[in-house]
């Protein structure tokens, strides 16, 4: 399961030109402050699926969704939920050190993010 999501994330980063390209797209869409919050060591600002669509472009999202067997209406909410955490974890020092993370790094990261996201859905043991 993690491989498919890692492939989606790799495709998203490639489409955007890596993390620096993604940052430029967010800036062009007037959402640089949102992306910057994900890179910084502070709290992550949320993003709406519609905002993410304006950043990435409908055509790019349709292509990514088709490659991994999702429809865009399923893909956008998932990306909006998990992308802030992913960018945050790719930039632990508050800076973009690796604009193009390795596929192995992305797969490990997706497994961690999905695991923590699922545990949040089902509650935590106290």
The backbone outline, from C-alpha atoms, is globular
- Helical percent range? over 70%
- Mean pLDDT, to the nearest integer, reads 81
Could you tell me the radius of gyration in angstroms?
Answer: 14 Å
Secondary structure class reads mainly alpha
| Total of helices | 7
Taking pLDDT < 50 over at least 5 consecutive residues as the criterion, the unreliable ranges are: 119-126
Distance between the termini: 28 Å
Major sheet: size, sense and barrel closure? none
Give the ordered list of helices and strands: HHHHHHH
Q: How much β-strand is present in the residues?
A: under 5%
Count of distinct strands: 0
Explain what you see.
Helix content is 72%, strand content 0%. It is built from seven helices and no strands. The protein is globular, with a radius of gyration of 14 Å.
Fold blueprint:
Blueprint: H1 2-16, H2 18-28, H3 32-39, H4 49-56, H5 58-68, H6 72-90, H7 103-121
Helix pairs in contact: 1-2, 1-5, 1-7, 2-3, 3-6, 4-6, 6-7
Key terms for this structure?
globular; mainly alpha; 126 residues; 72% helix; 7 helices
